[in-house]
Design brief:
3 helices, riboflavin synthase activity, transferase, Elongation Factor Tu (Ef-tu), domain 3, 13% helix, mainly beta, 2 domains, single chain, 197 residues, 13 strands
Length: 197
């Protein structure tokens, strides 16, 4: 379980293809502290550490993950938001994030508000029931509050600290991001659908 509070920025150094899988060597300030089999959120995608080599670590994404996320676009140089799992005695500063990306969303607009930056994203309408005004969503692993919600779009406002310390600074109109909707909303939607059937 993660909280959506990004711990470090990493950078893709190498991409390896094996059948339908892709493996990534990622260099970061926390790589040397990681352990094999540890689960780490990479742009909101929970991936298992397979190897650690000094200041870098290796993870692999399978076909299902590549189809649902933007990992298929990663190339050397791509900046990655990293977060280790929350310790049991830690604070939940963001919201409950599983690292199981639901879909991709596309940036529609970016507005500089002289002190913050507002991003608008378009997402598949099939997820509309999971998006509520002032609710939470994980975008590239960042826990954010959403507003100005419509059936297929919502906005988020980014403070300067988050802009500087995450890869949302590299998101522009047309950029695809990973999105995970709030888990509580998923359970409620599932429960209601079963009551109606």
């Amino acid at each position: 379980m993660f909280t959506g509070i990004i711990e470090s920025l990493g950078q893709v150094e190498e991409v390896l293809v094996a059948g339908t899988n892709k493996s990534y060597w990622i260099k970061s300030p926390i790589s040397h502290e990681l352990k094999i089999d540890q689960s780490i959120s990479h742009d909101g995608v929970c991936l298992t550490v397979e190897q650690v080599d000094g200041q870098r670590h290796k993870v692999t994404a399978i076909q299902e993950t590549l189809q649902k996320s933007n990992l298929h676009q990663w190339q050397p140089g791509h900046k990655v938001n990293l977060e280790r799992c929350m310790p049991m005695n830690g604070r939940l500063d963001g919201h409950i994030v599983q690292g199981h990306v639901d879909s991709k969303a596309t940036c529609v607009t970016v507005n500089d508000l002289e002190g913050s930056r507002e991003f608008r994203f378009r997402f598949p309408a099939s997820f509309a029931s999971l998006v509520i005004e002032k609710g939470s969503a994980s975008i590239n692993g960042i826990s954010l509050t959403i507003f100005n919600v419509t059936r297929e779009e919502f906005s988020v406002a980014i403070i300067p600290y988050t802009l500087e310390h995450t890869n949302i600074q590299f998101v522009f109109p047309g950029t695809e991001v990973n999105i995970e909707f709030d888990m509580v909303g998923k359970y409620i939607t599932r429960y209601l659908s079963l009551q109606q059937s």
